[in-house]
Amino acid sequence: MDQSYFLELALYNQWANKRLYKALEGLSDQEFRQDCDVYFKSLQGTLNHILVADLAWLGRLQKTPRTDLTLNMILHETVEDLWAARQAQDEEIIRFCQGLTPVFVSSVLHYQSISGGAYEAPVRTILAHVFNHQTHHRGHAHACLTRLGKEAPDMDIIYYHLGL
Questions:
Q1: What does the DSSP 8-state code read for residue 78?
Q2: How far apart are CA 96 and CA 98, in angstroms?
Q3: What are phi and psi of 41, to 5 degrees?
Q4: Is the pTM value of this prediction over 0.90?
Q5: Cα dist. 17→13, 21, 89, 126 in Å?
Q6: If you placed Cys at 46, which of 11, 28, 36, 40 could pair as Cys (CB 3.0 to 4.6 Å)?
């Protein structure tokens, strides 16, 4: 995997997040917070979790680890505030991927998890995880929208490539 692959995934994630948040327009605050029987309960919990994980991983990768995060933390109470933070984080991820070098991508990162464990993993594996993690939990958000009787967008990477 070269660094251009991760930039492609960052751009895809930005596209998918735009589609997802567009589907949230018009949701009531109650719907946003409603327990939909997914791992982080609601759209609010799920979308905040994705942002928390992105902040944690990017902090580790940039050697500025965040020690103030928990996996179920609510960073932003409203859809609007969360969307603004999501857009900023997507831009930061894209900038980060634009600066990747082959040496860094092939290196190993030593890091501490949110729960305090010490780990190490290849940077390419961590980057793959960051994007896979977003996709996984966007699936939970899709399930929430479906359970709320709302139309959930297609967010498969093939649709991004086809320009749909």
A1: S
A2: 5
A3: 70, -65
A4: yes
A5: 6, 6, 11, 20
A6: 40
Half-sphere exposure of 147 (CA within 13 A, CB side): 17
Rounded distance between C-alpha atoms, residue 20 and residue 145, angstroms: 10
Check: CB of residue 66 under 8 Å from CB of residue 54.
no
Q: CB-based contacts of 32: which residues, under 8 Å, 6+ apart?
A: 24, 42, 43, 44, 78, 79
The domains of the chain, with CATH numbers, are 3-96+109-162 (1.20.120.450)
Amino acid at 100: L
Q: What is the pLDDT of residues 56-104, one digit of tens each?
A: 999 999 999 999 999 999 999 999 999 999 999 999 999 999 999 999 9
Residue with tokens 């996984």: 136
pLDDT (tens digit per residue) in 111-128:
999 999 999 999 999 999
**Could you give phi then psi for residue 118, rounded to 5 degrees?**
-95, 130
